[in-house]
């Protein structure tokens, strides 16, 4: 527990500082996180008996994140990178299929799509000027703080009141009561932060509820991957927290959800 707290005391201020700076510092951080996360994913895949390609998948993830951070955020460039990545990865299975089958190619591509969701952190941050106090930082703050609020409340409610298992075959520690506590915690955070993103208070509370539910799906998805691989943590990069996927499993689902809510529902660009 002490190691976990010390990692948080060092890591959280650094992470928040890079979020504030945005642009190149944040791009460097997110690309590093993405490459480590794909490495962790490939280890999980090999533990399941598959052979995802680390070079091809890592290159595709890198291209996705650089595109999200540097090119116009209109979706056209990201779509082109995804299409090219799919063609290259699937075509690779035509050569020496005994060492890299079509299933391995699909597993690699699935990892690119999964880890590539980190691109939405960059897209969300770029909604404003991309640096300093702006609307992009406010929306990123809403996404992370609602997620952390949900996790915190779910933990405390779960250990004190948890009686009914939420998904016992995937994550035995999670309870329905903990989920409800997490929903309440995220709704309270969303209610408080609504003015910072320019929405009504009830919109913020509703966003918090939705974020808590989406975060739970992200958490359970990574738990299912680890259970299938027979491991406790996806990696060891963050002492006391596991790997990048362990720390950001919920956010991988929350960030794209919040980005599309901000752009498609509230009209930001």
UniProtKB/TrEMBL annotation:
It comes from the Bacteria. The chain crosses the membrane at residues 12-38, 50-70, 76-95, 102-124, 136-157, 178-194, 251-268. It is a multi-pass membrane protein. The keyword Transcription regulation does not apply. It is found in: Cell membrane. It holds the Pfam family CTP_transf_1. InterPro entries: PC_trans. It is an enzyme of class 2 (transferase). This is Phosphatidate cytidylyltransferase. It comes from Symbiobacterium terraclitae. The lineage of its organism: Bacteria, Bacillati, Bacillota, Clostridia, Eubacteriales.
